[in-house]
């Protein structure tokens, strides 16, 4: 029995933590109604690009191999434009008291991530405040064209079609296999 074929259209929450998922996450496209995804303790890194999933609202990526935020966060924002809850704790790119990061480093990290996700309400272990959102906007202004694209309403069907074509033509490596334990 193929679990994805059988349950892919009905599953809205998926916990695939403690596996060996890395860069090829194209199989997630089969979960049409997925709103919550837990990928804690896998081998996701800063080069991982998620497929376009506009319905996803919650993503946990704790304790993976994410070492740098850029372009990871930019790509994540493009793939998951409606993300409301994001957790990256335990990654080197998310400085905190857990990995000897300073308070200043943690604040910079937090504001940078918030600047990319306008709908984010919770990052790591705390809520996103209006003050943090304002400060993030001031600190991490992007070029006008990029800012317009991020805030311009493009029909979801057009975004979805674009990303399906892009993922099909350039994002799928048939030689790579994921190991599920």
Overall description:
This protein has one domain (3-163): Leucine-rich repeat, LRR (right-handed beta-alpha superhelix), CATH 3.80.10. The two termini are 17 Å apart. The longest helix is centred in the last third of the chain and has 15 residues, at 156-170. The protein is α/β, with parallel strands linked by helices. Helix content is 33%, strand content 9%. α3 (103-116) crosses α4. It has six helices and six strands. The chain is globular and about 45 Å long. The chain has a six-stranded mixed sheet, with helices on one face. Mean pLDDT is 85; it is low at 170-181. It comes from Harpegnathos saltator (Jerdon's jumping ant). Pfam families: LRR_9. This is Leucine-rich repeat-containing protein C10orf11-like protein.
Strand ordering within the main sheet = 1-2-3-4-5-6
Top-tier CATH class:
Alpha Beta
| Tally of contiguous helical segments | 6
Give me the secondary-structure category.
Answer: alpha/beta
CATH architectural group: Alpha-Beta Horseshoe
User: Poorly predicted ranges (pLDDT <50, ≥5 residues)?
Assistant: 170-181
Give the % helix: 25-40%
Q: What's the CATH topology name?
A: Leucine-rich repeat, LRR (right-handed beta-alpha superhelix)
Calculate the terminal CA-CA distance, rounded to whole Å: 17 Å
Q: In what range is the share of β-strand residues?
A: 5-15%
**SSE order:** HEEEHEHEEHHH
How many individual domains? Answer: 1
Give the radius of gyration. Answer: 16 Å
Q: Can you give the mean pLDDT?
A: 85
Note the overall shape.
globular
Secondary structure tally: strands: 6
Characterize the largest beta sheet: strand count, sense, and whether it forms a barrel: 6 strands, mixed
């Amino acid at each position: 029995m193929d679990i994805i074929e059988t349950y892919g259209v009905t599953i809205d929450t998926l916990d695939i933590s403690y596996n060996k998922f890395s860069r090829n996450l194209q199989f997630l496209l089969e979960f049409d109604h997925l709103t919550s995804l837990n990928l804690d303790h896998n081998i996701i890194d800063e080069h991982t690009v998620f497929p376009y999933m506009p319905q996803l609202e919650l993503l946990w990526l704790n304790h993976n191999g994410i070492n740098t935020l850029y372009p990871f966060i930019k790509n994540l924002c493009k793939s998951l434009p409606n993300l409301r809850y994001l957790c990256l704790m335990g990654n080197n790119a998310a400085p905190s008291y857990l990995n000897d990061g300073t308070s200043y480093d943690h604040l910079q990290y937090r504001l940078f991530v918030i600047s990319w996700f306008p709908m984010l309400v919770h990052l790591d272990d705390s809520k996103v405040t209006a003050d943090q959102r304002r400060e993030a906007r001031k600190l991490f202004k992007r070029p006008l064209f990029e800012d317009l694209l991020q805030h311009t309403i493009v029909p979801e069907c057009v975004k979805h079609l674009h990303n399906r074509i892009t993922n099909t033509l350039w994002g799928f490596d048939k030689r790579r296999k994921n190991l599920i334990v």
